[in-house]
Amino acid sequence: MNEAVARMLPPAVQLELDNLRDQRDLYRSLLLSEPAQLATFMAHALQTVERIRSSLRTPTREPAAFRGKIERLVDELIGLGEALIELHLPTVGARQVSALAALREVESRAAATGNDLLPAMVVLEELCSHLTVAADCIAVHVPLGAHQPVSFELESSVRLSQVKLATALEQLAERLAAEHGRRVGLVTMGLEDIPSEWTGPLFDVLSQLVRNAIEHGIEEAGVRATRTKPPIGTLVIEFIDCGVQGYELNVQDDGGGLDAEGITAAAVRQGLIPAGDTQALGPTRLVSLIFQPGLSTASAAPGDSAQRGQGMGIVRDHVQRLGGRLQFSTKRGHFTRYRINLPAPAVME
């Protein structure tokens, strides 16, 4: 297929073609690499992935601690780049360079915060996911020899089963972004820790929150430019195992925040609140209207229950059934964050 024809395809199809070309290039470079060197590199790379993801999950509220996190991540990427020197893996190398550049940009800011790290988290997760895919490819396609532990293929299959939920969410985000003319980077962390019996309800929860973030939160590239934001919006999903304290599920985007005025107008229009009562309601009460059945600030599409205002009600119902608690915060023009606290399995029983 020539480039002229490719440009005429829908954005979602173009994205799929780009992904297929990228996988082709990865497979080719892996097959042309020397097996012993490749196995040594991948062992180092997978350890790097674990350390990067662990560091990203660790909360850092003090400026000094946040600065230390950035420095550790930079060191990890430098070490990965040094391990790459003996191998020709261009798709991995390109992602390592991009991730390092993104972290250097955050490092250069005098008063960087967690929100400044969000765009870098996208490219970091792309690198980590690419390395995980590479490890899976090696287990299937590359004869690693006796130096490779027997457990490698088993660990690879476990990783494949653990990323199914993340893959489904990524595909959903890509489709919605293409449909709504958005550029979105999705970062998922810790989804492999979700108890298997929760996969179904939490997929419903996360699907709706991803939909809301892309349809109502993350702005078009032109709008983001006027707000001095990167053209690619960032959506982060993080699941944290807190031990006996239960679990925490966080979903945050760096979009325009919840529109309290638009939500109020929709609530009045749909008869959920009297027009004369809107002045007496505070911002928190107004924004909480999103959980009211039937509220929708979007035009209804036939057969789309989320567009008819049922989506956030579904989120609330699933969280309640799991015995959880849902909180959210938002700042107009900057972000929306949902935090869902879930009980430990023993407490649920």
Walk me through the topology:
Elements: H1 3-7, H2 11-31, H3 35-57, H4 63-84, H5 90-107, H6 114-141, H7 151-162, H8 164-179, E1 184-189, H9 199-217, H10 221-226, E2 233-241, E3 247-253, H11 260-269, H12 283-287, H13 311-321, E4 325-331, E5 335-342, H14 345-348
Parallel strand pairs: 1-2
Antiparallel strand pairs: 2-3, 3-5, 4-5
Give an overview in words.
The protein has helices spanning 3-7, 11-31, 35-57, 63-84, 90-107, 114-141, 151-162, 164-179, 199-217, 221-226, 260-269, 283-287, 311-321, 345-348; strands at 184-189, 233-241, 247-253, 325-331, 335-342. The chain folds into two domains: 16-162; 165-259 and 297-348, Heat Shock Protein 90 (2-Layer Sandwich). The longest helix is centred in the middle third of the chain and has 28 residues, at 114-141. With 349 residues, it is an alpha+beta fold. Strand 4 (325-331) and strand 5 form a beta hairpin. The protein contains 14 helices and five strands.
How are strands sequenced across the largest beta sheet? 1-2-3-5-4
| Total helical segments | 14
**Biggest sheet details:** 5 strands, mixed
Shape: elongated
Which regions contain 5 or more consecutive residues with pLDDT less than 50? 141-162, 300-309
Order of helices and strands: HHHHHHHHEHHEEHHHEEH
